[in-house]
Amino acid sequence: RSLYSLNQGLICWSFCNIETMKETAFCHYYVLQPSDNGLMLLRRLAGAEEILPLPDVNLSDSSADKEIDNSIQLCLKEVELKDYNPVQHSSGFHEKTNQLVQESLQSGLVTLEGTAATD
């Protein structure tokens, strides 16, 4: 009831594919959504691991694979890390939205009640 009253869902993950009820090598992500009759709806989110074929990395042990892995690891170590706090970041979204609303109100395309102006 709390999630429904807030109009929110819950993100869940599992190594079990709920559709096949089989355990997999990668995570499946789900959205748990409340419905108006009190039941919870479980919807799977699509991910790249479901779209692309997943090779069994344990079967391949070639020197080329190890060389590629080492190269990737070296490149990742060279990447400069920076802290990111989304609370301290301003995207300008709200300012732009407010500007568009003001322009629409001034041009008469939208009234304060939210209905389109008619000629």
TrEMBL record:
Superkingdom: Eukaryota
Name this polypeptide is given: Uncharacterized protein
